[in-house]
Amino acid sequence: MNIRIFNSREDLNATAAAVIAGLLLTKPQAMLGLATGSTPIGIYQHLADMYRKGQVSFARAFAVNLDEYVGLSQDHPQSYRRFMNEHLFQHIDIPIAHTRVPDGNALDLAAECAAHEQAILDHGHVDLQLLGIGHNGHIGFNEPGRSLTGSTHVVDLEERTRTANARFFGHIDAVPKQAITMGVGTILKAKQIVLVAFGADKADIIKQALTGPVTTECPASLLQCHPNVLILLDQEAGGWF
Ligand code: GLP
Predict the structure, then answer these.
(1) pLDDT digit string (tens) for 62-119?
(2) Mean pLDDT of 5-27
């Protein structure tokens, strides 16, 4: 694993954006695996800036998202589809038909999970998967447990995850209890993975994920098995390193 620690979040965001833009220069039709949460917002702002300055184009790129809450319509203020539209897609030239966020409101959730997985297979593979990390070590919404699921599936969210995300919903009761997520197998099939973490509250789980045992009890620890992982941390999250 290539671990880089930054004094400024601005530099970290610029570096992550440059890695994505660099990929698109060499492979304009790349499939990007994208993440939500507060962590990638600055990276998306950088990419939008780079697009405005003519430094990158997404016109031939594809984007597939990690996860989505079950039961939220696509235009719900907290849906990840809406997050992606507002934070990235509407600011760049990616054709919306080239973007895929799981439909958490699908009547047949199992079929939607299969369709998400198939969309990646149809393209071949994810070229670069961007990841944040949950305080319990989850990636996407793959929660810790005695076992993990390989492919895209419906998951019950941990109370801790719902509590952490309640800040976006106003109240925990409004946070969905389930989500669709790419599986850890789906994530590990990406050619390159870029994991980003900010803040002191992520330091312990980052240390555990990067230096602890590879275990389903810390889903991010499975990244230790991937041959091409770039970890971008600020001082607070990575100062222990
Ligand atoms: C959610 C998302 C994850 C994200 C995590 C951390 O649970 N499903 O993909 O990594 O939150 O969020 P944040 O970046 O806001 O700390």
Answers:
(1) 999 999 999 999 999 999 999 999 999 999 999 999 999 999 999 999 999 999 999 9
(2) 98
How far apart, in whole angstroms, are the C-alpha atoms of residue 238 and residue 241? 6
The rounded radius of gyration (Å) of the Cα atoms in the chain is 17
Alpha carbon nearest to ligand 1 atom 11, residue: 37
136 is catalytic: yes
pTM of the predicted model, to two decimals? 0.97
- Give the residues surrounding ligand 1 with Cβ less than 6 Å away: 35-39, 66-67, 132-134, 140-141, 161, 165
- Looking at ligand 1, which residue's alpha carbon is closest to its atom 9? 140
Q: Is 138 part of the annotated catalytic residue set?
A: yes
Residue nearest to atom 1 of ligand 1 (CA): 37
Please write the tens of the pLDDT for every residue from 22-65. Answer: 999 999 999 999 999 999 999 999 999 999 999 999 999 999 99
Mutate-to-test residue for ligand 1 from 9, 78, 129, 138, highest number of ligand atoms within 8 A of CB: 138
The domains found in the chain, sorted by start residue, are 2-238 (3.40.50.1360)
Q: Give the strands of the sheet with 192-197, arranged side by side.
A: 2-6, 229-234, 192-197, 128-131, 31-34, 62-65, 99-100
